Fold:
Amino acid sequence: MTNETLPKTAKLTLGDHAIDLPVMVGTAGEVAIDIRQLRAKAGAITYDPGLGNTGACLSKITFLDGEQGVLRYAGYPIEELAKSSHFVEVMWLLLHQELPSAQQLAQFTHDITYHTMLHEDLKRLFSSLPKAGHPMAVCAAAVGALSTFYQTAGNQTHEQNWIDAIRLLAKMPTIAAYSYKHSIGQPFMYPRNDLSYAGNILHMMFATPCEAYEPNPIVARALDLLLILHADHEQNCSTSTVRTVGSSGANLFASVSAGISALWGPLHGGANQAVIEMLMSIRDGKRTAREFMELAKKKDSGVRLMGFGHRVYKNYDPRALILKQACYDVLGQLGKKDPLLDIAIELEQIALNDAYFVDRKLYPNVDFYSGIIYKALGIPVDMFTVYFAIGRMPGWISQWLEYQADPEARITRPRQVFMGATPRPYQPVEKR
Ligand code: ACO
Structure:
């Protein structure tokens, strides 16, 4: 059906009651039925656990077509951005849905460079947490704590939101690096304003006060690529969380802190850590690749092929394609070999030729190959998801800002289909 032949309304019949629901079409052809009047007109709600059929907002930021394996930020294909852009420019693109002019880019780069320091008192928060705690928990706590240092957050004027956005983009690498330095008992390294965004992350992670440190440009460029690929992915679990928390009027820091927690889960961003642990377990002889794949197909085994499958992609995730090639490029440039890459390729080959995975349209997602690159760059395994969070920051912030500016936005409050007990009299404890 083309846009011209598409009916303007969809008819819903419930018993002898029929109602017309408006049909809307997105700029990339997505067809949606507007059900906002459904309950009022038909006395019924929709049932959609996991919200796989529910459009919760209108957005101009990111488009993805899961059937075709297409991803675009504000109209620009991810492949072109990965090849020709850089993370700071991509941040601006997501925030404004336009590429910056040279002057805008220079001003923006200056702003996020000069807000990188944390308040000295915030450092004590890191020191008060157990060293063995997961850095994602530490980052969620530190980002949430920013609201206590910037108490104007929550005024939510456009100007205030923009200042909060700049602060968060600038400070997230510092928070991430401090979470790592604390975990290994090294002194925190202050940010350096002469370095690039990625170079500064590497400096704060790996430099010590004892020696001069210069980030390796190959490592910095590879990291920049990873950050670009993670920068946004429309209404995924963590982004929906950020929008949902923001819908109550909570400030940006509180909303993003919740997003970090959502990203941590192994079914979402935490999969990058889970993938490398899975590959290591095969490398260390716990199981062969084939044995592992047999297990992943058994529902009751509790094992999944991590880094495979996606709610929206029913084709190769375009980010995984870019990252697979980047694995070869980065390992080659750094003169490294990693048997985990061979194991990943073997798992992928088995999956692409196995009816279980083919029939369910399960392909590698962004997390399947990213861990191999993080590992080659020297990033510790439990920091992988933190790096994902640094990359996703402009996406979360852009989506939060879009929600705040949306005249149709309402507090997020789904309904339910109640399946519990019907009314019954209370029984005192001695009679139960
Ligand atoms: N390994 C084995 N089987 C799988 C996998 C997998 N990785 N993923 C999905 N399946 C199977 C399911 O068991 C289900 O089988 P069934 O139809 O026989 O019941 C079918 O494929 C559909 O899977 P669902 O879980 O219903 O798909 P959903 O869209 O709800 O979940 C998810 C998507 C969570 C990503 C899932 O594919 C998964 O768990 N993958 C592994 C974890 C992972 O890599 N997560 C990162 C995703 S990317 C990101 O968030 C950044």
Notes: The mean pLDDT is 95.
